[in-house]
Fold each of these.
Amino acid sequence: MSDFSGHVPGSREYRRLLTALFCAGVATFAQLYAPQAVLPLLADELRVAPATAALAVSASTLGLAVAVIPWSTVADRVGRVPAMATGLIAATVFGALVPFSGDLATLLALRLAEGVALGAVPAVALAYLSEEVDLRYVAAAAGSYIAGTTVGGLSGRLVSGPLAEAVGWRGGVASAVLLCVLAAVSFVWLVPRSRGFSPERGRAPDDRGPSVAVRLWTNLRSPVQLALYAQGFLLMGAFVAVYNYLGFRLEADPFDLAPGVVTLLFLAYLAGTASSPRAGAWAVRYGRLPVLLASIGVTIAGAALLAVPQVVVVLVGLVVFTAGFFGAHAVASGWTPVAASPVARAQASSLYYLGYYGGSSLFGWLLGIVFGGAGWGWFLAVVLVMCVLSGALALAALRGGRAERG
């Protein structure tokens, strides 16, 4: 491994790295969540229930979840940057084919393949960042990367939603792909080469470190790592479920909002763009656990406001909910590779995102059944329980100097 100590804020390479990862976040999450803004239109055209339509999102997040560990192994072998670039290019190709799918089965297959390819970025980005940035600044840098993911998620929805109302859900999704092409090209152009990691392909067999199985087991037996993975699993599951089904809620009584107006509510994502780098900076200053718990508390408050049947209150609740979630995600995801053994950081990040997107796939579909069968009130009750449980697990497992130092 290299003796390189890491880029520091103010340096040219530090700025290029954060900008490149910002673009990678946009390229990944714009296409990952573009269908979310058109789910009611998709459900109407295909004549399926909301939970079935939401599989268009869950299929891609499921593909991403199962792919993150294999991608981390590929990145150990060939390098961080080549792995991320390959995944983005492949995902964009699959994404371009999605609008041409003739039935639900083909749509879901393409979305699954797209998610598998997209797994390269979340599987590798934070490990790459933790190796290339001075460890004192990893939490803040991770917050900047998470901000890019929020811009991607927002832009994909805002591009696809309004256009879909005019030209159909297929045209809306296709427009998001063009944005992803631009972001992917920018990433490839800007991203600095790895200096803090050398691929196993270029090392002697005796210098390649523990096997992948050993690296995975090292993380899976750590209470700190398991608690961090639980944050992603529970909080992301709750977050995606809210954004999946809020559109159905607001287009029905007592709101009766037009699809274009509902799409504008995705502007609440900007709260995450602001909160994620701020949470990272606060984690450096005040400690990771206090900021994580405070962010979860904000998420809970926002979810509670979503129960009020008034548009203004729902909008405020969505902003608060989104800000809290992305603050918690920025802290937990940035904490994960730092808390891992140096030889197992890629696997630690991959396991976090396995939980993160596993929660998205499972609860993004399962809570649709709750919503369809029991209503919005019970749906929100489950969301609140999930958030409270994540906070309790964090408080139980992440206290203490060793956990905080990672």
Amino acid sequence: MHPTIKDVAKRANVSIATVSLAIHGNKRISEETKQKVMRAIKELKYHPSRPARGLVSQKTGNIGFILTENHFLRSEPFYTQIFLGAELEAHNHDYYVLLTTIPEPLPKKIKLPRFVAERNVDGIVIAGKIPENYLKHLEDEDIPIVFVDYSNEEHDCSAVLIDNFNGGKTAVEHLIGLGHKNIAFIGGDMNHPSIQNRFNGYKSALEQHQLPVSAKNFIYDEVNTTRENGYIAAKKLLARNKSVTAIFACNDAMAIGVMQYLQEKGISIPDQISLIGFDDVEAATMTTPTLTTIAVPKFELGGEAIRLMDITLNSSTIISNKVVVGVELKNRNSTGAAKSC
């Protein structure tokens, strides 16, 4: 039988209320009484329950985690790994993480997650971009929010961001270093600041090396960044410009779609076209050839989100922190030296 708070009170010879106050470090409790309670807890191996702590602290100990349905797929596991990183870090801070996904497109009548409606979370982590009208409904609930891989000046919230600009620049500089001069960009959902910043990094690298930044090398009108849209974008690109020798895809999902199209058309990778992605999802190591990419530390993003949330929840003032997580090049087999004409 597990010991109860009543057993602790009896062992320490204090009231149940005093035990609760001591557990939460209430200043009304003397250090001597607190030590007596803590000693009883240790001797009895007592673990306070969430509801018991919540009665005193007015906190649930729960963190909500929200992302769109198309970001929570086995085939596109980027955000899934961010969630796992958040879950692992939450254990270190004694939080529970409650996951929910929202449909896309949103139904006309917006329904907030039950854990929000019932006020069963202390804060919310939002991974990736969610519809603006949904976000406004969440903000109306006045619950602390931490963004992951998304930031918007209209929303003064803490955020964990990827160094997308330098990641995009590194990707293109890798291709330039291999002798490529006609380098294309394939993307989608350019309203997402992460994708836009990768594109800006792409342009910056070309300009810095005095290479042409040509609109005929951009395909970024796809609705989102799936494999299917990568395939479609590659088809559009090569119909427009057959002189491309290298492609930077804004994420690995699109890069794998590009790879599929090139291989179907008998275009050798990297002998005829070099290809680089962004994210370093597991599938990038399973393609043939393996995909050169910019690696994002996904577990670290999730962990940082929980650490930021913990700071937010334990701060007496409103804070808005931004943490930028670095990236690195993973040089595999899909990129190679440009062939001289």
Amino acid sequence: MTAIALTIAGSDSSGGAGIQADLKTFAALGVYGASVITALTAQNTRGVSAIHDVPPDFIAAQMKAVFSDLAVKAVKIGMLSRAATIHSVARGLARHKARNIVLDPVMIATSGSHLLTRNAVAVLREELLHRALIVTPNLPEAAALTGASLARNEAEMEVQARHLLTEGARNVLIKGGHGHGRDSVDLLVGQTLKRTFRFSAPRVATKNTHGTGCTLSSAIAAGLAKGLSLVDAVGEAKAYVTAAIAAADRLDIGKGHGPLHHFHAHW
């Protein structure tokens, strides 16, 4: 049976992040991608200039259309923007018995633009954290979700990840891309995992990192849709994103933070 993954996220008009990055990732990894759009952004490599939120009832209609017809094996959740959107998505996930949910708590774009209202952070934590198989915050997002300072090392990263487990998360992948040092290290902890899994890759010197978080979370969802274990899905996703970042400078897109090269293995 064809592996199908669904992305529930915002649209990036420049094509580097959000829905567009997710669908590119699914395609590059051999998975059929469907989409539910939560917001439209007027966006390019230099920033987000406007956001138009999709009405909650239309988000629900999109979810119903997809789940009533397609055998969705994994769901990636990205930009949700506001509390009303989160409520709608949470109800839809429960109604359609969605599984293998990957929650990327998108709060701030690579350019620095805010993509989630401050009053929606608590709603996201309360309504979606426990529904996801895995949550994938970067360092600033983990700090915001836990009310802590930015983690400075792996020990502090793990403390924050485990704090999210106490908040109801089942598994947490805390990403070290915003950190420093020769290597970029991500840590995976879980309620039932017997140990902490460490995923490390050499840090790539490039400004072209637009859509990195979207790409990683959708790559994990693609792996889960294909039947991989969670640990294997994370490992393969880390390898894919690292290669896409390494190849990013082969593209010449925009004047700011350019996108990853999602099709580095094909072009």
Amino acid sequence: MTEGSQGSGKDRAVGEPEPPLRSGGLPLPGLQHWRLRRGLSQTDLARRADLTNDYVARIEAGRRGCNPAVAQNLADVLKVDLQELRRKYEDTVERKGPPKLAGTRVAYRKVHQAYLKMFLEGAVGSSYGAMDEWEIEKHCQESTWEEVIEAVWARQREIECLGETLEARGVLQDPDLPAGVRSFLAAVLESFPDLDIRLLAEARRREPSEEGHEALTKAMRDLL
């Protein structure tokens, strides 16, 4: 039992919000679920939320409660309602077993990304949408403001094409579609335009020229 908790929570139904701890902290059993759905590592999430890796790991493992203000910040970073982080999901608890099981999740994601890259390259000629968030962020950090805008417009074309294709074929409603594939594709679609606005905003903060600053600002407005 987590120290200061009201109970073990073992009998609590999946999907039911966990109650606050007696200490006032909030357990966040859904944190890992939403972090993985957004394609973030613990390091990525900790960096964006201005927390330590150990803090995030302890919360995900249920070894400590989370300060309510910090919990809300994590929800904002993950772009979900705080209540969603307080719910248990069947895939939240990390599997126990040989190390290869942990690697299997990563390997499958890489396969999903490889197939998506091939589809996007063939359909629209670019594949930024198949990148992890940290990859596209790194790409933009090393690019000129013109290249950042070009990448964002390419992502818009890719996401629109992917969304139209999936909707036309009813892919996400297919009951035989593996949950991992459905979650991956949904996360890609949901990343636009929030991720793209953030990429433009970060590029604008770095850009010293007035021309680049104005162009990036206009691009942001066009996405809103």
